[in-house]
Structure formats: structure tokens, C-alpha cells
């Protein structure tokens, strides 16, 4: 079902993606309560290896505004081995924000949230720019696949 907030954010329309050389699924992340777009190109890290690796080794240029990493299942993160700060949102099973970190610095540990079912990692400043707060409901929907 389409809702009004979906139409209110034309900047959140994902780019067309080539079906050739399919590498990963991409998701669109919207804040349903505020009508804002957090990320148009969010990768899902679902396997144990992808969740452990996360953003480690990825340069800041490869994680621009509009991108994200959705770790599911997950209830705790760290930034050991990272070179830049990130925003972090812990989500429950209904994708409500349980806790957030703004600009979590490299070589830090986020808290362990037992009620969290997934964690969304975003470029630093995203949560502030989109006014996303604890208690907000997010929608994460598939938008296609990206070529390598």
C-alpha cells in the first residue's frame, strides 16, 4: 500500500540498476514517522561473514550519503578497524528505532541491545539530517540489485 510519505520524498527514488553482473540486493530505507529518506542504496548483511566484516576496510568514498548497511540479525556492533565515524540505529522486530548513535567514532563499541533484531549503519550525519529519533518506525523495502 502506498502512503503519502512515499510521494513526499522524490529525492528518495532509487537509481536504475543494471541487471547484469548482479552482486547484491539493495533496499530503500524510509522513516515513516517523519516522511524522510535515510538511504536509497542499502545493502543487507545477512550471512555471518558479511555481518562480521560489515564496513571494515571499506573507504569512506565507497559509503557516500544515501547508502547504508543493514545487519540482520544483529543486536550489537563495533567500529574496530574502521577509518571514519558512522550513524547507527538499532531496530526491533517492527523496525522501530530502539537506540541510536550519532557519529560513532572508529574503534568504539556500541551497546548490546537484547531487544534489537537488526542494526542499520549509515553515513555520519544521516540521522540528524533526517531527524530520526528513538521510537520512529522505519520501512525497509527491496528496490533491486546492484552490479559489482
Describe this structure in words.
- The protein is built from 3 helices and 7 strands, in the order αββαββββαβ.
- With 148 residues, it is mostly beta strands.
- Helices cover 10% and strands 37% of the residues.
- The protein has one domain: Protein of unknown function DUF192 (Jelly Rolls, Sandwich), CATH 2.60.120.1140.
- Residues 1-11 and 13-23 have low confidence and may be disordered.
- The longest helix has 6 residues, at 48-53.
- The relative contact order is 0.27.
- The N and C termini lie far apart (31 Å).
- A 7-stranded mixed β-sheet has the order 5-4-6-3-2-1-7.
- Strand 2 (36-45), helix 2 and strand 3 (67-71) form a beta-alpha-beta unit.
Nearest-angstrom radius of gyration?
14 Å
Mean pLDDT: 85
CATH topology: Jelly Rolls
Structural class determined from secondary elements: mainly beta
* CATH superfamily annotation: Protein of unknown function DUF192
CATH level-1 class? Mainly Beta
Count of alpha and pi helical runs = 3
How does the overall form come out from the CA principal axes? globular
Main β-sheet, spatial strand arrangement: 5-4-6-3-2-1-7
The CATH architecture name reads: Sandwich
Low-confidence stretches: 1-11, 13-23
> Can you count the beta strands?
7
Q: Level of helix content?
A: 10-25%
Q: How many discrete domains?
A: 1
Task: Report strand %.
Answer: 35-45%
